[in-house]
Structure formats: C-alpha cells, structure tokens
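#structure-requests
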Amino acid sequence: MASALPYAPPSRKANSTIMSMQALRPTTRGTIGSGTTSSNGSFQRRTSLSSFPSSRSPSVMSQRRPSRSPNPPPIDTDRTSDPSTVLSKTPTSGVSSQHSSLSAPNKYSSSAHPARRLKSQYPRGDTENHVEYILVASFDIDKGPIMEHQYPVAITGDEHMLAELMLPDQAHVRNQDWTIFFLHKDTSQDEEEAEEKAERRRLRKAKKEARAALFESGNVDPLERVEGSEEDSSEEDEPEGGEGPPLIYVLNLVNTKQDKTAKRGAVVKAMAICTRHPFLHIYKPLLLLALEEYFKTPQPSTLAELYEAVNTMDLSLMPKLSILERHLLQASDNKDLFVEKFEQMIQMRMAEDKGEALDDMAAMSESPERRPGLVRNGTKAHVQQLIHSNYSVPRDTHEFETKVMYNGIPIPIKVPVAVSPETVGDFSLVKLIQTYNDPHVKSPIPFALHPHLTTGGVHTHPIIVLVNAMLTQKRVIFLGHNRPSGEVAEAVLAACALASGGILRGFTRHAFPYTDLSKIDDLLKVPGFIAGVTNPTFENHPEWWDVLCDIPSGRMKISSRIEQAPLTEGLANFQQQNPAYASATNVATSTSQAASDPTGDAAFMNDVIRSIAARHGEGVIRAKWRDWVVKFTRISAQFEESVYGASALYIGVEKAEPGNENVSGHGYVWPDDHAKFRELASNVNRIEGWRATRSYYSFKQDLVQLYNFRPLKALDLHHLHDRLRMTKLTPGASRDIYVAMERYTHSYDEICQLLAVAPESHAGLFYIALGLFHKDRDVRMRVVDLLERISDHEAGRHWWKALSRFEKLAFIRIRREAEAEMRAKLGGVERDIPADGDAMVLGRRMSFKTTATIASFGGKLLKLTHDASTVGCEMALNLYLPPKASAEKKVPVIFYLAGLTCTGDNGAEKGFFQSAASEKGIAVVYPDTSPRGLNIAGENDSWDFGTGAGFYIDATNPPYSTNYKMYSYITSELPSSLFSSFPELDSERKSIMGHSMGGHGALTLFLKNPGMYKSVSAFAPISNPINCPWGEKAFKGYLGEEKKEGWKKHDATELIGEFKGEFPALIDVGTGDNFYKQGQLLPENFEAAAKKSGNDSNLTLRYQEGYDHSYFFISTFGRDHIEHAAKYLFA
C-alpha cells in the first residue's frame, strides 16, 4: 500500500499508534534466513517495512504553516553561471611557486557537449540490486491470506497485511489480476543510512577540495585520475528531492488456477517483486513466467532463480542524464535525441574491454571525433569489433533495450531512460481522461460547489476537479466495483502523474493504488490520500473522502461532508487590493457556468481532448499537462508577489543587466494587466488551497536545490521567450531580448536551459529565429551566432532541423554576408558555405564558439575558441565584457599577453583585472600563449619552448615556421575576428600589456606597430631576450641560430633605441623575483636604452620591494596597469 509523509494538519494529524498497529515483528515462515548472505554474495539486512508511512519523523509542514508574507528560500548565491566552473576559482590559500605561470596549462573543450564526464545510471559492478525482495502469498480457506515465502530474507512487519494486499478482493473470480502497492522503510534504519550517506558526501567533498587545490597549483591535469575520482560525487550531481525514506514499489501478480482436488475447486497464489525502481512494469513478463513456474515447483529455489535473473540485468550502458537533459527527452518525441550519449557509452565500454587507460576513455566520452566504428543502420546503431561483440543503440532513446535470461529464455526489457517524479508504473493519462470526459460531455451533471475544486463553476470539467483536489490535498478515492484491482491501481497512479506534471511531489508517497475496507482506520489518519478501492461500501460513506471517482460510470462526486475552504488572508488581500476583480474570485462558488472561462481550463481541456481524438499519443498529453502544472506554479508565484510583495516560489538574484527593464523581468507573462489580474482572480482559491499543502512545501525546497544546478541564473529565459511568444514588442525591446539571449547562452547546459523553455510542442526555435528578420543588423548577426551554437548542440541540432526552410534560408543569407565581409578583412581567405542549411553546420566556421560564460564584477567573462588560419589550429581565449559594453556604446580593449606555460585562463582567473576594468568600462582579451595540439616533434619537451612558449613572434625556422606565428595572430587575425564578431568592442581604442614572456610580447608589439595601441604596460617583462637564456633558446629554435641579426627585430631593448613616437609605458618588476636576480628579465638594459634614445619621458619603471614573479605580484598592481591604460584609452 502506498503511503504518506508523517505530516497531517491539526485536524487530521496521524497519531503515534500507526506504527504500533503495523506491528513490525519478525517473520520466519517460508523464508530463507533472517539475516543472511544471498546467492549473489551480498549481505542482506532485514528491513522493517510498512504499507503506511511512519509517524515518527515530523515533516516540514507539521513544523510550520505558510508564512503570511512569503519570502524566497535562502540560497547560496554564486556569480558563476555554470557549476562546472567551480574548480577554476582561485582558492584563498594553496601551493604557490615563485613562477606561478610555470604550471600545467588548462585544457579547453570546444565541443558542444557537456564538460562533465559521461556516467552510467547503473554502473557495472554496482552493489545495489534492481529487485530487493520477492514475495509469494496464497489464499488458505481456513486462515485467509497467508505469506508462503519471502526471498532472500524476510521483511519484518505485518505479514498478514502484506498477504492481504497481495490477494485483493474478488481475486478468486478472475484468472489473473495485477496490483501495485508501496512499502515504507522504518525511519530508524533510514536515519542510519542518512548518516552513512552524509559521511560519504563529506569525504567526497574533501577529495574534491583537495583536487581543486592541486589543479589550481598546476600539479594535476583536469582529467587526470586521482584517488576517489571515479566516485566524483555522483550523489551530489543533482538534487534528490526526497521526502523521506525511499519507497519500495511492489508489483504483484495474482493467478487463479482451477483445481478440482482443492477446496472450492481453485488455488489462488500471488507473487510480488519489490524494487526501488518506479518503472516496475518492466518486470511483468518475468512475473508471468515465474508464477507459472511456481505453480509447478512451489519451492524457494523458484524465487531464487527469478531473483538472480532480474538482478543480473545489465543497465550499465544506460547513460545518466542531467535534469535538463531528462526534461528535454521527456518533452520530445524525437527517437534519436541524445543518441550520441548511448554511442559514447558503447565506445567507452569497448575501450574498457580492451584495457585502455581511463584518460583515453574520458577523451572518448568528451570528443565525438574519437569514436570510430559506430555505424548507423536505419534507426538502429550497432558497433561490431573483430572480437565479434555487438553493442546496440536503442531504436528509441527514450527506452534502453536489454535482456534478462530466465529459465534459458531471453526476455526483452525496455527501461525508460528519463523518469519524472511521481511517475510509477505503466499507466495511461489518455485512458484516465477519456474515462471521465465522455460521460461529462454526453450528460453533464453539475458539481456541488467548493472554492478549491470547482474553479470553473458547477460544470467544471471532472479532470480539472480531480487535479484541483490533489493540488489542494483533498482525500481522493477511485472506486472500481467489479473491476480488476489493477485497473483501479492504474487510475491512481495516472492521477498522481497528472497532478504532478513531473514537477510537483508529495502524491505517490500518500497514494494507495489498492487498499481494502479493513484498512480504513489507518487510511483516514493519512492526510490528503489518493486511494484505489473496489468495495462499493466506500461510496456510502462520504465522511471518508472528499472526492469520489467512480471508474465504471465515469462520474465524480464531491462529498457532502467535505471541509469548507477558509477565508484566507491572501484572498482577502487580493480582493482589497483589486476591487475591480473581486467578483472574479467568486467564480468557483457561482451557481452559473462561467461563460468567459477566466482560468483557461475549459479551453485547455478542449485542446487535450482534440489531441486525444487526433491520436497524438501519450507523450503529447503528458507534455501538455506538464505545461499546465508549470503555468500554475508560475501564476502562483505572481500571485504571491502581487498580494504579499514577495514569493517563496521565486529566488531573487542579481540581474544580468539591472538597468534594462526589457531583460530584467521574471515570471509568467500576460498580454496586458487586465488579463493578468483576471486570471489571478480566477485562480486565487486554487492557489491559496495549494499553499497549505505538502506539495507546495516540497516544491519550495526543490526550487532551492534546482537553482544551484541551474546553469544560467541571471536571466529568466522562460520569461524572455514568453515575451517573444505572447506580447507585441517594440524593435528596441525585442532587440534587448535577442541580444541578452545570445550574450548569456553559450555553454552546453545553458543551451539545454534555453531549449527547455522552447520545446518542440511550443514551436521550438520559431520565435528565436524570428530575430533573423529584425531591422537591426547586429540583432540578426547575434541570432545567427546563437542558432549556430544551438545547431552544434547534441539536442539543439534536432531543434535546428525542425526550423522551416524559410528561416534556414534567412540564416544562410546572413551568414554568407558575414563570411564575405570576413574574407575581405582577412585578405580573401575562401570559406564556402553549403547551400543546405543542415550541411552548413558541419563545416568549419570562422566565428567564435563559447564554451562557458562566467559572471564577473557585473560583466561577463566568455571562454571562447575559434579556428585560426594563421596558426592552423583551434585557439582558445578569454574575453571579458564589462557591464557597460553594447553595440551603441562601444568599449575600448586591453590585450593581456600571458607568460611561459600559461594559457588565457591565468590572467583571467588570477590577475583580478576585471575589477578595475569593470569600473572603467574596458574589455580585456586574454589570448593563449602558443598554438596547441600540432604534434610537432619536440614542442612538448620543455616548458620554456614550444607549447605554451610562443614568444609572440612569427617563426621562420622549420618545423615551427608553418604554425608558430603568434605575432601575426595577435596583431592581425585575432583582433580582426574579435571586432567583427563583437560589435561592443571599439577597434580604434586598443592597449596592450603582459607578464614575463607576455611582457616581452606587449613591449615588442607596441614598438613594432606605432599607432596600433594607445599604451603599453608590463609585469616583469623579458626585456632583452637576445641576452638572456630564455630568449636565446626561443630565438634559436624559432628563428635559427645563424640569423642572430634578425633576433634584434623581436627584442624590446633593441627596438626602443630605434623607436620614434610617444611611448606611454608602465613597467613593474619585483625585487624578490628570482628570475630578475638570475638575469632573465634585464629591465635595467631596457631602461638604459630608452634613456639613451630619449624615449623615457613617458616611461615609468618601478621596482617593487620584495615582490616575486607570481600572480600575487600581478594582482597587487593590476589596478595600476588598468588605470594607466584607461588614461590613454579615454583621452
């Protein structure tokens, strides 16, 4: 029997006798041991289970009622937009070297795939069983229902009650019947497991912090395996949202065999499978075979064979999806959605079978290009190797296909990949809706009025009455007289899913898919239960229920004994604040039918019925109900804000653009204020009823947890998309929305979040693609960039394919114009665009790809990659855009060049330049220090030459002469690409600065290109490289030993002697810098040459006492360098 949380309102609070009535006592009859080791070798601990919830642990609701003025739940705000960036934060303490730039470079992932490593939902070698218990019960003429066997150990509890649940009323009159019920663990055992779980989490957190410290110090690669990394907080990846001990779901089969030798001529037996998986319907074929076998061999060995078979089911190739990915999969009918994840799982398994290293498997999981051997054959993919193995990708990615061998028979099993909360078993919303819709349409019977239930008046649709009853925590009974108990149980489970919408919780835990009259006393102690019964006696006791749903007749009744809704403070306040709409709040208690349908429920139900008539399928109907529940929660949040001034259903965060009202809004969107207050007024009773329920409190807790895992926190994408979809916007308002969407939606998870608010059932990308026709060219270009990112995305590519040909042609036209402009700027480099929009997204493009967006000092730090023709590889960089940046108000740019072994991340994460740059309104570019991944012989042999040590020169010595052209890349291709792609940047106002090798680069680039930069500054620059070991090694390798005269063209000390013009320079050197002491930097040579040539008038060279070469030094004086640049950039 399903169960409830121990909470109850004061008038119905469950007393402490519930558990004592369950008498959880040991049982020994027909069991195999009381605490033994099962045949698979795992120790089985006796578990205390009950069909009713324990009353020991108070729930959240029993501790407090709704606050009069709800406040958003407390959260830990984080300015980062992606949880994956946590490891990149600089710790307050950690290992620091004298030259902190001499560390292992961070690795970039430029693919449109999640940065996290792909995992299995049920990893191979996991000790948790699919099925925990198998039970057998039979009906004894003299004793009634009895328990025959329990395997692998006995469940301590009320054995007789379990047997009664397994043998429902009138089971003997049918050859076969199915029932489902739920069992609850003893809370004392759950407390022990919770403590163990908390300890495991604590250890994982400690390991993660230690790993972060190692990564930050440069002592470990981001993908390198460390002890415990395989566990990597799998339980902390996402919120669990549990309301108590996990339920045990029980699928039960009852068979009646005619036997003339038996009393009354028949034998009735039932077999049940107990599992923690809500998709328990997958075990139906196995139960049919096993119970038939048990009739032949009624021995524990039959149960053991079934137990072993189901627990050897291999689900290790079923990928684990994130919350957003699950939502996308559930909302889509596309059978290939996330097929890449199944292929990656297969490839990782094949690598594991061949004994490849973990790092190789990680690369396979993150790089689609490294997954050879996958062949798509029609709608089914398979991988075949020489070892004759065969792995198959499901024909439909909504279900994972596997097999269970039972008695030598391979039983095909399809397991749902994404399961919504409150979704248990295999039920049909279509069947439930049709059951109660047809009688209502043919012969409507007016309901007794109740403010919480009849929100559309006396002729409210019965399905709406049912959902209202569950949302407001009423007692609901499904009555199926002379119907199989399985049919009743299916209706209960469908109702739970209907009210939940995959969003709300608290229904199944208080649901009893099947119960009987003998348990009525216990049932009435459970608040807001949902129960299925077959005994017609229930109908004659309206004091037992609030809403009765009769399955045979398809009618619903509201009890004459139902408790009336109180006048709440929210209702009174709303009527007082909005007197013009006070009458609309009385629709639910009006005896006349509401002709205008203020709630929209009648129109919604008509749409659902039309979809059912058109055979749109179960998935479409579930998606529609999910939308209805989401809309209800969003309207509720708006109601709370309107009445109380704040909502517990909205977490206030720092806005991305606080001064821009067009993008700083949140919540549900109405066409106008009249429509808003009209709909709020018609929903006020339903909302106020819901606010006093456990599902409301669970939803508040879920929002807090989900917020922490939401990739994009600064924008309400749902609100912005609804404004595009539902309101008439000015060109300026729509421009702001499109620009914000493009600016802040970059990473894999951020795009998932955008797709989740633009499902295929709501026209997909149609309203976003309308930006391709905006009057503003900048908007059109930004929409092209956004759609391009989406088209590269694992899920987004399916949304892209669904766009109309008209929109794709507009996309191609705009892209061609941009490519033509880019070719002209880069000297005619040809990049043809395929005519087919689908094929186009597969080609190489010159536009930037954004792998992450991080909020920083009011602006955004973008992690970018692009294909750089100058160096012949993909280059990564960081770009900081201050909050003032816009196409109308362009901002100047500083290029920061990093030192030896560094990447574009070092300055961005450790230099603290963004603080001053944000205040001054300056963008900062952090390019990489060399090409990467070229596999040139010797480029990775030492830290001061090759990878991470490009020295910002164009190499002329083979084999580096082809690709090592960092001078041309920094001075030409990179700025040209940036200024074409980011109209916020002012190409006429540039400054340059750098550290160590980057200081050398900054000085030489400024001196070699008079007028290109407004100013220059450097931290501990390599000032005279032709006379220091670092420079001599680099110039010999890149320029050739025999061309030493040419080295002088890349030496700042030599160049300053010939320079003509203004030289606004700031240089800082630490006197505690070991490299300064060793003669690697030689700033004194540079200063002498500047004085000799007369170029020292605007040169400021400071020696900072005691400072070393590290980023502690740089971050201390970084603001000075930003202010130095600002003086000339804004002159």
